[in-house]
Amino acid sequence: MTAYSELSAHFGRVAALSNAIGILQWDNDAMMPRGASATRSESMALLHVMRHDMTTDPRIGEWLSDAEGDNGLGAWERANVREIRRVFAVETALPADLVAAASRAVSACEMTWRQARADSDFASLLPLLSEVLKIQREIGVAKGERLGLSPYDALLNDYEPGGRSAKIDVLFDDLAAFLPGFLEEALEAQARRPQSAAPEGPFAIEKQRALGVRMMATLGYDFERGRLDVSAHPFCGGADNDVRITTRYDEADFASSLMGVLHETGHALYEQGRPAAYMDQPVGHARGMSLHESQSLLIEMQACRSREFIRYAAPVMREAFGGEGPAWDADALWRQYTRVRPGFIRVDADEVTYPAHVILRYRLEKALIADEMPLSELPSAWNESMQALLGVTPPSDRLGCLQDVHWPSGGWGYFPTYTLGAMTAAQIFDAACRAEPDLLPAIGRGDFGPLVGWLRTNIHSQGSLYQTDELLTRATGRPLDPAVFKAHLRRRYTGE
């Protein structure tokens, strides 16, 4: 076997183990009984150490050196070697005992977070979250020393390869300066439009699920390679060719669940559209979380809050719930789905206020990783930031710093990819609409073929063949340009 063949076979085995971890993690978050948490924690810790051992095998370094000198490799194989080198550099920075400690800490903290969130009891989570944070700092330091990065940038790099906080600071400071004035303009424009009441519930959960499944099918989700379930926090997970999504239901508000389903289906379409020939190789993975979040936000925000989609969906919604009256008219529903209203919950936020939720979390997690504020002050710092950025103060920690699972689950450095993803989504959707003139009219007919087909060709099937900036430039003609996102907001919310 050649060095490249050895690498490919080895990382195929890594992928098989990762798939097992993915299914167990999905079960942990969606189905596992609470009493099994301690046993599952030990199983997950062992599997994470086994994967770490596989990805730090000393033979990988030898194979890489030989493969990097192989002039007979094609573009995909060369890119795969590049991605394996990146993984190897990151993984060899960590000792196995730190990997195991991180897995155990996260398992315990996630389980406690569920109850702490329900009880709005940050104090009960603080000891376990402190341990997660301590370990994440250690991971950031170890990876940062290996990669020549700050601890925070080293954590960010896991989710956004090549991403740097210095660049994000500039983008987010610009958005933070733009949003307050634009929010005021959007609210004024909204006040001039006809007001409409939201459809009144209750909306039976089984009917909400049926509607979600129907919309997933409309988008092109392959139910032969995935499923829909319920969890405390909506997510997309699972394994290669077994892409599972979750949502949560509120009988008083079917829109929250539906938009959660649409969002996670965007993630799932990306996973189901990855290059089949390289599905088990690093080059076949999705290209970072800003691209991944762009796909979920493109479906949820760009496509499924468009007038065209709502015109198609309005009669489907009426049929699903037996709705009657003007609240179910397409124009009234569109006003509801594009209503701007500062609120407490990130996943329920509108497009205009959503970036503020992310900027808040980004700034706080940077300060926490840098040990610039004690974790015990997180609730008060969170509330002060919400007031400063959105003019609202959460009445409880459940509606404040306990609402997201990311930090308890060890996802430090993830949050900025949401707003990077929103900006990327606007740019990709704009390019797709320019390339496919029938795209929006087709959505109005419930036909997502032109949109998903364009995404399959230009984003999904490309895996990690190209680095993020090059992939975006190839797809849209330019690197990330926040002006496209701002222009989209102006068109939709102020009519400019």
UniProtKB/TrEMBL annotation:
Transmembrane helix recorded as keyword: no
The keyword Cell membrane is annotated on this UniProt entry: no
Cofactor note: Binds 1 zinc ion per subunit.
EC number(s) given by UniProt: 3.4.17.19
Active site annotation, chain numbering: E264
Keyword annotations: Carboxypeptidase, Hydrolase, Metal-binding, Metalloprotease, Protease, Zinc
Family annotation (SUPFAM superfamilies): Metalloproteases ('zincins'), catalytic domain
One MF term in the entry's GO annotations: metallocarboxypeptidase activity
Residues engaged in binding Zn(2+): H263, H267, E293
Name this protein carries in UniProt: Metal-dependent carboxypeptidase
Organism whose genome encodes this protein: Hansschlegelia plantiphila
Lineage: Bacteria, Pseudomonadati, Pseudomonadota, Alphaproteobacteria, Hyphomicrobiales
